[in-house]
Design goal:
mainly alpha, 6 strands, globular, 2 domains, Transcription Regulator spoIIAA, 21 helices, four-stranded parallel sheet
């Protein structure tokens, strides 16, 4: 591996600390995701061990942590209910093959063609579904079976809510509060493991009458996961194609989103196609050890980086840490209360919901809002597979419509020529303290990664960066989000971003989204001439600050 060429003892020490930390954090999450999916808790740990090791060893991201995640909970539960565990293992292998094909054929970049409103709609819907499946254990309800459909589930919960257990509710609430306090004190504190241990000790010492892993599943067997080739039933292939595609797409989206987050936090750059191939191999192997589908886990990846990870070795140590738990501490897991795991999942579900994005979305066009609502509604009330398919169709129609809107026909007049003089660059001097980048064509989902050229050598940039939008013919929510990210990166490096020359549709969307709050109203200019004047003002202020500091 390239990242191991200059590997040394100091980096290894950092990787050990990070790997053990994230391994402990992953333990309760792996069990909780497996239980929420309708499987045994050990299935989640087996998945985390096998896929966590393979994704780190083979992947294209230096600090990515792989394993079971909340994105799969709903679709896994549906597959198990319809086709049983054999069907799930088949579906996971099929999804793994699809991911390998995507990586080998260079389609790793194709995931970027899903617009942001659709991704947020998926995420919001999955969050609501995960939370709804945990209400039973959170309140300790006496409910024999939780229905698979959202409305029926909520109806059953409402009818049986009078059976709630005060002890289970207290443990679940205590778990949530503990995780929130840990996060408020320091991001380095492993909130899930602290909360789980606290709740387990409280349940044992106080002898609380609550359901535990031991009472529901008979505990977790000690020892290594057993290798067993899943039974491949040809009669299930046709019915599993849709779910397999859904698992593959969700896995690709979440793993590449997680890798992008890792890049920002560690100042690295991942290889999306290599990452998808690693995800595919991991998902092909996972069912052979009784594991679930897996993908890159954003929260665990962030924990890994914050704990000091320097290379993929940290991810492999995370998997070995979980393996040690299986070998030496599995019997102790029997005492973990189900209410504690439900509390952990509630917090995880809320954190993955991207709720802060919704107010921004509501400021955008009616088209963006309607696409988000349709995706959200289909995810919650219909089926995740239907939501993914509908989302892809909406993405295609949206792209066609927005590209068509960029076509204009107009007569060239004397006024048109005169009005264009303030926008042209040929007769203007660009000072040493500023640089200009331009966007040419529609800046929609699928094209936003091209903006990375602005910050790929950020430390070599002058104090002022001007982004010329004169030839940007269209802008959407995903493009706007990319502009915000660039603005924040430049601001973090003590540089100023100025936008200039936006045409009618992009300018209108920028105003609706209150983009001026991100970079300041004075840094949104009508043309490049005004932008250069503003750059001069900014530089003079910077110079005066430096002079006063001396």
């Amino acid at each position: 591996m390239v990242c191991l060429r200059d590997y040394n003892l100091n980096k290894f020490q950092h990787d050990v600390v990070a790997g053990v930390t994230v391994g402990l954090v992953a333990l309760p999450l792996a069990m909780a995701f497996a239980i929420a999916s309708g499987l045994t808790p050990q299935a989640g740990i087996y998945c985390a061990v096998v896929t966590g090791f393979l994704i780190s060893a083979l992947g294209g991201s230096k600090t990515q942590i792989g394993g079971p995640t909340g994105a799969f909970v709903v679709v896994i539960a549906g597959i198990v209910a319809l086709h049983g565990v054999d069907g799930l293992f088949m579906c996971t292998v099929m999804a793994g093959v699809i991911l390998v094909i995507l990586g080998v054929t260079g389609m790793g970049t194709a995931v970027k063609y899903i617009p942001r409103p659709i991704v947020i709609g998926f995420t919001n819907g999955i969050t609501v579904l995960i939370a709804s499946t945990q209400i039973k254990d959170f309140f300790g309800l006496s409910l024999e079976k939780v229905p698979g459909e959202f409305w029926l589930r909520m109806e059953a919960i409402a009818e049986n809510f009078h059976t709630l257990s005060y002890a289970a509710t207290a443990l679940a609430v205590g778990t949530v509060v503990t995780m929130l306090v840990c996060r408020a004190v320091s991001n380095r504190i492993p909130g899930p493991i602290v909360a789980m241990l606290g709740a387990t000790v409280a349940a044992v010492v106080l002898k609380l009458p609550v359901a535990t892993i031991g009472t529901r599943f008979g505990g977790i067997p000690s020892g290594l996961p057993h290798l067993a080739i899943p039974h491949f039933r040809t009669d299930l292939i046709h019915g599993l194609l849709g779910p397999a595609f859904t698992v593959a797409m969700l896995g690709a989206i979440e793993s590449l989103m997680s890798a992008v987050v890792a890049d920002r936090m560690s100042n690295d750059h991942h290889n999306p196609n290599v990452e998808l191939m690693a995800q595919g191999v991991a998902n092909i192997v996972s069912p052979m050890f009784g594991g679930l589908p897996a993908t890159g886990a954003i929260a665990r990846t962030a924990t890994n980086i914050r704990a000091g990870a320097k290379s993929p070795v940290a991810g492999m140590i995370h998997a070995l840490t979980l393996l040690c738990v299986l070998l030496f501490a599995a019997p102790l897991a029997s005492y973990i209360p189900m209410a504690a795991l439900a509390g952990i999942l509630m917090v995880v579900a809320y954190n993955m919901g991207e709720w802060r994005e919704i107010p921004q979305l509501l400021k955008l066009t009616k088209t963006d809002i309607s696409i988000w609502l349709v995706t959200f509604a289909l995810t919650v009330f219909a089926d995740l597979t239907v939501a993914v398919e509908a989302g892809m169709i909406l993405a295609a129609l949206l792209f066609i419509g927005r590209v068509a809107d960029t076509t204009t026909v107009s007569q060239v007049t004397d006024d048109y020529v005169e009005d264009g003089r303030v926008h042209i660059l040929q007769d203007k001097d660009i000072p040493y303290y500023a640089t200009i980048f331009r966007i040419h064509g529609p800046f929609l989902f699928g094209a936003t990664d091209k903006l990375a050229v602005v910050t790929e050598d950020i430390h070599a940039l002058p104090p002022v960066v001007i982004l010329r939008l004169r030839n940007m013919t269209a802008l959407d929510a995903t493009g706007l989000f990319a502009l915000e990210e660039i603005a924040r990166q430049l601001h973090a490096s003590k540089r100023v971003l100025i936008l200039c020359g936006a045409r009618e549709q992009p300018a209108q969307l920028i105003r609706k989204a209150d983009f001026e709050e991100v970079i300041g109203r004075e840094n949104i200019c009508d043309n490049v001439q005004e932008a250069l004047k503003r750059a001069e003002e900014v530089f003079e202020k910077l110079e005066s600050k430096v002079a006063r500091a001396k």
